[in-house]
Amino acid sequence: MMDSVPPNAGDSPAATNSAPDRTPLGDALTSAGSLPSAPAERKPFQSSSLVFVFLRLCIYLALAYGISAGVFLLQRAFLRREASQFATQIFIGESIGLSGVLAAAGIMSRLEKRSFGTYGLPLRGAFGRLFWSGVVLGLAEISAVVGGMAAFGAYHFGTIAVHGTDLIRWATFWAIFFLIVGLYEEFQFRGYVQFTVTQGLGFWPAAILLSLAFGLVHIRNPGENWAGVAGVILTGLLWCFALRRTGSLWLAVGMHASFDFGETFLYSVPDSGLLFPGHLSNAAIAGPAWLTGGSVGPEASVFDFVVLMLFFFVIHWLFPAKPSEPKLQAPLG
Q1: Do residues 14 and 213 make contact, with C-beta atoms less than 8 angstroms apart?
Q2: Can you tell me the distance from the alpha carbon of 286 to that of 294, in angstroms, rounded to the nearest whole number?
Q3: What is the pLDDT of residues 130-143, one digit of tens each?
């Protein structure tokens, strides 16, 4: 699932439950609902005061926007003209957005004297078991949703649309592209910002606010509607739950990337209201919007809501709460 495609990069802002996979973020997020106050000498960059939390967020967002805009201008200067192909444009835009949020977080990690991995993407867990578990879950989700639609005659795979080297080229392109999308959107909404807002409000209030924002940015997509936005919000909460249980974003990154890849390439259906070129088949969906998702695609199908609710239990089962962490279900207030 993708948020709205930026017209240019200047518009883009920014496991297992065993001990080795726990991160500083996991330890922080599974504490008793709020982080201990930082020593006075470390303020403002380690304080949990709402004033300083807001200040740090403003600095981070200014850095993310500024770095993205600067990289975009450099790209324009060196390439001398914008890429003409739509797929290339969105690839460049998402890549520049990712560079902005990661670089900004890197600067903040120095200012706050924290490891970068504290914000959810520890290098030691990169593309490890959590990531590949997420890949399997994402493919399982989109396959279950499309399978349910097909069982009711609402989805037909159609004929193969790309062959030979074109098939390999497009499959590789979309796999890399959606990996970038997964990294960008997960870190943008559930990385530094989630960590920082958690310090001021607690984990679940922060998760709810940022999942609402995650859903609302999708409303700008052509073909998106409120059912699709609701599905994105629920998905955001699921990935926050995965972050809570694993202490890392790698599961969510893998799941995000593979779901979008399956939606766009493997099953060749709209992704958050966007139908991209270079899909595997000439698929067709037909039927009532509650079943097919309408112009949004499978993300707004009733089957996706059912599968997402089941996946809360799957993640709960795969990554159980530790007995020493009794307050994982923190109050919302």
Answers
A1: no
A2: 8
A3: 999 999 999 999 99
Q: Two tokens at 3? A: 């948020």
Neighbour tally for 93: CB within 10 Å: 24
CA atoms within 13 A on the CB side of 5: 19
pTM: 0.83
Please give the C-alpha separations between residue 213 and each of 193, 209, 278, in angstroms, as whole numbers: 12, 6, 30
Rounded-to-integer distance, Cα 146 and Cα 287, Å: 13
The residue-averaged pLDDT of 55-59 equals 96
Is 58 exposed, middle or buried, given 0-12, 13-18 or 19+ CB atoms closer than 10 A?
exposed
Instruction: Note every long-range contact of 101-106, with CB atoms under 8 Å and residues 24 or more positions apart, other chains counting.
Output: 101/13, 101/14, 101/64, 101/68, 101/184, 101/187, 101/188, 101/191, 101/192, 102/187, 103/63, 103/64, 103/67, 104/14, 104/60, 104/61, 104/63, 104/64, 104/67, 104/192, 105/60, 105/187, 105/191, 105/192
